[in-house]
Design a protein that fits this description.
Layout: H1 22-28, H2 33-54, H3 56-63, H4 71-98, H5 101-120, H6 125-139, H7 145-150, H8 155-183, E1 190-191, E2 196-197, H9 199-218, H10 225-230, H11 234-248, H12 273-286, H13 290-311, H14 314-327, H15 336-342, H16 360-372, H17 374-387, H18 389-406, H19 413-441, H20 444-472, H21 478-497
Antiparallel strand pairs: 1-2
């Protein structure tokens, strides 16, 4: 059993008269209370992102009557936040590399929370869509939290802390249906000449509160010392390290380091915004890290395409399987695609009142899928130091590929729930670990941009996945299954080609 390192602070009582490398200084601040609080803040940020991104799955059915949404309207609402994230992910990487990790996280979370609150009181569908798009634009930059977290840690703890992030995402997936189940079924109604406020409006507000709260908590935190030193801010770097040392030390010892070796300045803040954005992108893809950047972008694209192609399909698939089990006179079909192709949409009845009720089974099924992710979220951090990020990422992608291929053979809604849970557990942690690998492989001056461009390719993949499933679900459902499984296999083999992370990583060793 691993010993308790909560008070592992290096006892240094005398000042060092010579400059030291930043990695050495980070070791000298020790490991303790600050780092656990940092994990709590960054993990809670990841939970808030889960709330913001996935809350639309409950908003669409509960708000469909108020906005008189057709299927196309629902599709646009479902894609609005994804489009906003696609637009923002590229920009926020440059901001994080020039203005700071903490600054970017604060602005992004405030933006997400503000536009979510604004959308909650929107009475017009187009305004609601616009607010959700800008919320997505803001929340896309919150993936900077991986860079912010890793830049306070020495090599010994990086992989373990990064792998714990999936637990917080899973917690968000489990907590969200609980919050929705408590709030949305309420029947209160506040209405006057200008506004209609119902339970789903309150649900949107509640989902926005974590983002705003965490933004204010971040204001009390220091900026990343690695970012500060990369910008040539020597004094601010020392102050950030002193802040961490005070948290970790019970004795209030004076931090022994008075001077840090300053690297060659890579300050991009003097450029115009768009010139700087263009130059940062070109610098990344012409540097010695260009191959790694291209490979990680392809992994993000393939894995996220597969994930969104299937995970957004499972509720629809469940509905069709239940229809088959309840109404179809033809039984004993051999494949899922044969069952799906039989589905008949009932003729539209104009006199039927709009139904915005969400069946309790929906909340329960989503909770089950989230709970199914707990085992993998717990196992990975326990063994990450022994087996490594790359091992678990490859294992996750192969596992989710097998579950995607097996989808072809299911014939009942119960099998669909089981398969959804397996696929979500493996693919979700695989995507999270891909973010972890990305921030581990790149040095400070490229880390924010590399992570954001990877996120951008992931969001392109999400849109591609949605289009593919919409085109082929009825007549050729075998195509999305093959594409999803194949993309995950490609992702697994590409991860194998990447350098190892952690202590054996020699690419970024000694680099900020």
């Amino acid at each position: 059993m691993e010993k308790d390192n909560s008070k592992e602070v290096i006892d240094c009582t005398s000042l060092l008269n010579h400059p030291v490398h930043l990695d050495k200084a980070i070791e000298m601040v020790g490991f303790g209370y600050f780092h656990y609080y940092l994990l709590f803040i960054c993990g809670s940020l990841y939970t808030a992102i889960a709330f913001s991104v996935t809350s639309v799955s409950f908003i669409i059915p509960s708000a469909q009557c108020d906005f008189q949404m057709t299927s196309s309207h629902k599709g646009l609402l479902n894609g609005a936040m994804m489009i906003g994230m696609l637009m923002g992910s590229f920009i926020w990487g440059y901001v994080a590399d020039t203005k700071g990790r903490r600054f970017t996280l604060i602005i992004c979370m405030l933006m997400d929370g503000f536009f979510n609150i604004l959308s909650s009181v929107s009475q017009v569908y187009s305004i609601f869509i616009f607010c959700r798009l800008l919320s997505g634009f803001g929340v896309s930059g919150a993936t900077t939290l991986f860079s912010y977290l890793v830049e306070f840690l020495n090599i010994k703890y990086r992989e373990k802390f990064l792998s714990w992030m999936e637990m917080f995402w899973t917690s968000g997936i489990i907590l969200l249906p609980c919050v929705a189940w408590i709030i949305i079924p309420q029947t209160f109604r506040i209405e006057n000449e200008y506004i209609l406020f119902k339970s789903w409006n309150l649900f949107v507000i509640v989902c926005s509160l974590p983002s705003i709260t965490l933004a204010f908590l971040l204001m009390k935190m220091p900026e990343s010392p690695k970012f500060l030193l990369a910008q040539g801010k020597h004094k601010e770097t020392i102050n950030a390290l002193k802040f961490v040392h005070r948290w970790n030390s019970n004795l209030n010892d004076k931090f022994p380091v008075t001077s840090i070796i300053v690297p060659r300045s890579n300050d991009k803040s003097n450029n115009g915004f768009f010139d700087g954005l263009y130059k940062s992108t070109i610098d990344l893809f012409t540097s010695k890290f260009k191959i790694i950047a291209i490979v990680t972008c392809i992994i993000h694209f393939c894995a996220t395409t597969s994930y969104y192609m299937l995970i957004l399909w499972f509720p629809e698939l469940m509905n069709r399987l239940r229809w088959y089990e309840t109404y179809s006179s033809i039984q004993n079909k051999t494949t899922m695609c044969e069952i799906v192709s039989m589905y008949i949409v009932e003729p539209e009845v104009k006199s039927v009142k709009c139904d915005d009720h969400i069946d309790h089974s929906v909340y329960m099924n989503i909770m089950i899928i989230g709970i199914a992710c707990l085992p993998t979220s717990l196992v990975v951090p326990l063994f990450i130091n022994k087996l490594g990020l790359r091992f678990f990422t490859v294992l996750s992608f192969f596992g989710s590929s097998i579950s995607a291929a097996w989808l072809y053979f299911i014939t009942s809604s119960m099998e669909n729930i089981i398969l959804s849970s397996i696929f979500e557990a493996f693919s979700s942690i695989g995507i999270s670990l891909t973010y972890c690998i990305t921030v581990e492989l790149f040095p400070t001056e490229y880390r924010g941009m590399a992570a954001s461009i990877g996120t951008m390719f992931g969001k392109i993949g999400a849109l591609v996945g949605n289009i593919l499933i919409g085109v082929f679900i009825d007549a050729h459902c075998i195509i999305p299954i093959i594409v999803s499984s194949l993309f995950l296999i490609i992702s697994a083999f590409l991860v194998i080609t990447l350098p190892r992370t952690g202590r054996t990583n020699i690419i970024t060793e000694g680099v900020l």
